[in-house]
Amino acid sequence: MRAIIALLLLLLLGAARDPILVPEVSQHEIRLRQGFTGTELLLFGAILNPDGTRAAKDYDIVVVLMGPRQSIVLREKRKVAGIWLNADSTEFRSAPSYYAIASTRPIDKIVDEKTAAIYELGLPWLQLSPIGAIDPGEQIRFSEGLVELNSRQGLYREAEGEVTVSEQVLYQARIDLPSSVPIGTYTAETFAVSNGVVVASASSKVEVRKVGFERAVADFADGFSIFYGLLAVVIAVIMGWIAGRLFALG
User: First-to-last CA distance in the chain?
Assistant: First the structure.
């Protein structure tokens, strides 16, 4: 009995020594207006002992900014007789619309593959959840294709070594958001890691939304999709007619 009590006390004392994270972001709301060219988001905070004092040792810090998950269909194109045609396709149930990770060191130097997969620490460990039965090799190929496509568009990015920690207390990371950043609620999550183990985590929210004319157009497209489609066709026909007239006059 004494041994069990001693063990419980050691576990409680060990848990009490785990640090706490106090995260913050430079903007809790990002407004997309006409002419928006992107912005930089500062994720920062403090690493403290439970009693509020400075942490007694160095911790690796990993920051993940993730946009709302969405269902997406990925199609593969093949060139047949000189023409590019849609070939194989697959649908992912919960692909992040945006994903960025920053860390004090390379992820493989901080945690093992199992821990990285559990917390989705890095692009190779995103849980994309394909719909339906799919060959494992095909799943890897389509997953890598989705990551590559979004990386080229600036929607997926990794910044290893870009988190700085000052005096074992203050950490910060700068993450770029492109002009094409999707709207929705984003989660900024910070992990403190020691000896390959995540010992603390905390999160905050960032809202990305359209304002002004862009929001009016988006609301109209969502609420009146049929009329929006018809209007788009009418505008295209009118612009084509005007272009044809100008070409004939020239």
Answer: 98
Q: Where does residue 210 rank: exposed (0-12), middle (13-18), buried (19+ CB within 10 A)?
A: middle
CB 128 within 8 A of CB 143: yes
Count each helix (H run) and each strand (E run) in the chain, helices first.
Answer: 6, 12
Q: Which of 74, 100, 78 is nearest to 87 (CA)?
A: 78
DSSP state letters, 59-95:
-EEEEEEE--EEEEEEEEEEEETTEEEEEEEEEEEEE
Beta bridge pairs of residue 189: 64, 203
Q: Which amino acid is at 47?
A: I
- pLDDT tens for the 250 residues of the chain, in order: 554 444 344 444 444 468 889 999 999 999 988 888 899 999 999 998 887 777 767 899 999 999 999 888 877 766 666 666 666 778 888 899 999 999 999 999 999 999 999 999 999 999 887 776 667 777 788 888 889 999 999 999 999 999 999 888 899 999 999 999 999 999 999 999 999 999 999 999 999 998 754 544 444 455 555 655 665 666 666 666 666 666 665 5
- 197 forms bridges with which residues in the sheet? 194
